[in-house]
Amino acid sequence: MLERPDPATAAALARLYDLDLIDDPGDLDLYLALADRADGAILELAVGTGRLAVPLAEAGHAVTGVDLDPAMLDRARARARDTGTGVVGRLTLVEADLVGLRLPAAGEFGLAFIALNSLLVLPTRAAQRAALRTLADHLAPGGLAVVDVWIPDAEDLGRFDGRISLEWPRLDPETGAIVTKAASAQHDAAAATVTLTTIFEQGGQGLPPARWVRRDRLRLISADELRSFAEDAGLEVELMAGDYGLGPIGPGSERAILIAVKP
To answer: CA 193, CA 75: separation in Å to the nearest integer?
Structure first.
C-alpha cells in the first residue's frame, strides 16, 4: 500500500480484503500438497489475514506467518481462534518487514513461500531480490521455496489506462451491508509498474455509503527475472509453472509460480 492508513481504515481494508477474496483463487490445494511434501515447519511471508496459513495449521502443520500490517494480523489471529484451539497453538504470527527478516528459527523451515502477487507489492528490484534471499535464509537444506506472481499480457496492460470499472457488488456477511468494489489500473511501461486504485463503498439501499480507497503500486517482473532472483539467493529452481496445477509456463500463462529447493 502506498500510504499507511490510520488504524480504523486499516481494519476496514483488512475486512474488505477478505471479502474480495471470498472466492478461493485456487492456490490453497497447491500449498497443502507442498506442505505434505516438505520436511519441517512452514513460513509464509506477507501472510495477510491468514487465508493460507490458517488452513495449513488446521491440516496439522506448524506455521509462522510474517506481515507488516497489524490489522491483517489481527484478522489472521481471529480466523485462527474461530477455527479452533489446535490451530492457534500451531500458528505463530510476527509483525515485521520481510526484507531483511531474520527469525530465530532461520534455517529450519521445510517450506517458505510468498503467495498471490505479494512479491509485486515490494517497490524495487532490490527489495524483491532481498525477499527471495529471506526465503532462502530461512529454509533448511532440502527445503522448498515458492513464489507466485501475476504475469499480465500486452492486452491486459493496454487496458490499464486509468478508467474505472465496477468489479462486483457483494453482501458482507460480517456487517450485513452491501459492498461494491470499483477499480482503476494505470500501467507505466518505463517503470514496469501498475498502479492499482481500489474503491470500496458500503451501505444499505438508499443510504449514503461509507467509502474506503486503497492504492498499490505493483512492480511487475518476468518469469526469467523471478528465476534469476531465486538463483541469486542460492536456490536451485525445480519448476517454473504457469498455473496452480503446475502446468508448464508458456505463451498465454497468467501466472509464474516458482518452486525451488535449497541445496
So the answer is: 29
Confidence of residue 204 (pLDDT cuts 50, 70, 90): confident
Residue 120 DSSP code: G
Beta strands in the chain (DSSP E): 41-45, 63-67, 91-95, 109-114, 139-150, 161-171, 178-188, 193-203, 210-219, 236-241, 255-261
The answer to whether residues 180 and 165 touch, using CB atoms and an 8 Å cutoff, is no
Mean pLDDT over the full length of the chain: 96
Q: Which residue has the cell 500458528?
A: 91
Quote the CA–CA distance of 98 and 112 in Å, as a whole number: 12
Q: Is residue 261 within 8 Å of residue 142, measured between CB atoms?
A: yes
Cell of 84: 479452533
At 252, is the secondary structure helix, strand, or coil? coil
- Please report how many Cα atoms fall inside a 13 Å half-sphere around the Cα of residue 31, on the Cβ side: 31
In DSSP terms, 179 is beta-bridged to 170, 202
pTM: 0.96
| Per-residue confidence band for 1, with pLDDT thresholds at 50, 70 and 90 | low
* pLDDT of the residue at 88: 95
Span 4-24, pLDDT tens digits? 889 999 999 999 999 999 988
